[in-house]
Amino acid sequence: MSFWLTVSCLIFSMSLAIGQLLFKLAANDFLRLKDGSWLHILLSPSLISAFALYGLTSLLWIWILTQLPLSRAYPFALLGAAIVPLCARIFLGEALSPLYGLGILCVLTGLAIVNMS
């Protein structure tokens, strides 16, 4: 896999994680609302940013799939799933158990094995 394609896949993974953080921030905004109005949540900058990022990320994913077979590209979506809990810990202060950390390490190890094949 070329350097730029690898970078594109990593950007895709990070975009998934950032989008999930933005969705969580939007959910937190919604919980803070007194009236729980859906209009307020729909106009939330976090939610709008998450949708915009996911739209751009989808376009990047389609381009990646023109360059790689799905079986080679999809593990980068799993990388996003490993990055999300780490970002939640760093930026939202969410707790992660050592066993959870071991699971993330397994995902990263699996991604490395897939990319070496």
Can you give me a brief rundown of this structure?
85% of the residues lie in helices and 0% in strands. It is mostly helical.
The main pleated sheet reads as: none
Tally of DSSP helical segments: 6
- What is the helix/strand order? HHHHHH
How large is the radius of gyration?
Answer: 16 Å
How many domains? The number is: 1
- What is the 3D shape? flat
Quick one: how many beta strands?
Answer: 0
Low-confidence stretches: none
Mean pLDDT: 89
Give the class from helix and strand content and strand pairing: mainly alpha
Estimate the strand proportion: under 5%
Helix content: over 70%
Measure the end-to-end span.
11 Å
Overall description:
The protein has helices at 3-32, 38-42, 45-67, 70-73, 75-92, 98-116. The protein has 117 residues and is an all-alpha fold. It has one domain (3-116). The radius of gyration is 16 Å and the shape is flat. α5 runs antiparallel to α6. The protein starts with a helix and ends with a helix. The longest helix is centred in the first third of the chain and has 30 residues, at 3-32. It contains 6 helices and no strands. It is 85% helix and 0% strand.
SSE order and pairing:
Elements: H1 3-32, H2 38-42, H3 45-67, H4 70-73, H5 75-92, H6 98-116
Helix pairs in contact: 1-3, 1-5, 5-6
List keywords for this structure.
about 120 residues; mainly alpha; 6 helices; about 85% helix
